[in-house]
Amino acid sequence: MLRYRFLFEQMVRRELRQKYKGSALGALWYLVNPLVLMGAYSLVFSVLLRVADKPNYPLFLLAGLIVWVFFAQALLAAAPSLVQNAPLIRKVRFPRETIPASVAVVQLATFLVMLVVLVPVELVVRGSLDPALLLIVPVVLLLFCFVLGLSLALSVLHAHYRDVEPILGALLLPWFFVTPIFLRVDDLPGVSSRAWLGDLLQWANPIAPFVDAVREVLYSGTAPSLGHLAYLAGVGVGALALGVMVFRRLGRDLAVLL
Q1: Vertex 110, ends 107 and 115: CA angle to 5°?
Q2: Angle formed by the axes of helices 226-250 and 136-160, to 10°?
Q3: How many Å apart are CA 143 and CA 233, to the nearest integer?
Q4: Closest C-alpha among 83, 109, 118, 150 to residue 17
């Protein structure tokens, strides 16, 4: 990767240019999409249905949405990335990991821009600068490891089995609604009387603890527990190690396969 860092940089630049090429707003769409989702879901859950009774609910919602948007968009873009770059793979010898990795980095850039916008707003609303805010750095790093690992695995699996991308698209929709983005797990109906259900929704869903960690730091100004951080580290590093292993095992014959 270090030897081919120039190629990697060019891939990232190309992804950034092509995503909204020819659109009037261009890269501003990276900010518009999460904001539109925040407005729509805030209207539904806090005004129409009135199931969300939290102060500054749009900020609560946005803190979870930006994590999900980063996660979902990175996986959806990374899954077909090797197939889309088949001519380059057949002609040039370079680390194939750079292709899905460049997609994940582009989505990370979008996520970081949203954080830059959201953090000052959260600080102004809370009226305090909490030391826990420093934990956003390791949390985002572990989140990126998790997303990168899944991106590597899904891209090479889709190169072998072209059903991976449509299955992923169908899976993400129900996954979105069982992730505690609109409400915390403890606030969901029926969870308070069924502790096992809360644990299942919270810890069996690997993206849920990342959503909660980012929200705790930004929205609540509190630090996640040591157990929570240990879970994030295990999931993030484990997903990256698994993704690298799968990619190396299945990516040897990509030039011939594609």
Answers
A1: 130
A2: 30
A3: 9
A4: 109
Q: Which of 39, 63, 36, 73 is nearest to 183 (CA)?
A: 63
| Distance between CA atoms of residues 14 and 103, nearest Å | 10
Q: Using CB atoms within 10 A of its CB, is residue 97 exposed (0-12), middle (13-18) or buried (19+)?
A: buried
pLDDT at 250 over 70: yes
pLDDT above 80 for 197: no
Whether 143 contacts 70, CB under 8 Å: yes
Which has the higher per-residue pLDDT, 121 or 52?
A: 121
Chain position carrying tokens 């990342």:
210
Most confident of 39-53, 99-113, 114-128: 99-113
Alpha-carbon torsion 50, 42, 172, 142, what sign? Answer: negative
Q: Is 137 exposed, middle or buried (0-12, 13-18, 19+ CB in 10 A)?
A: exposed
Query: Backbone dihedral region of 67: left (phi > 0), alpha (psi from -120 to 50 degrees) or beta?
Result: alpha
- CA 147 → CA 74, 133, 178, 226, distances in Å? 7, 22, 18, 22
Residue 88, both tokens: 């380059």
Q: Helix, strand, coil % (nearest 5) of the chain?
A: 75, 0, 25
Nearest alpha-carbon partner for 66 in 44, 42, 34, 39: 34
Task: Report pLDDT for 190.
Answer: 60
CA–CA separation, 39 vs 132, rounded Å?
A: 27
Spatial neighbors of 235 by CB under 8 A, at least 6 apart, are 142, 146, 206, 209, 210
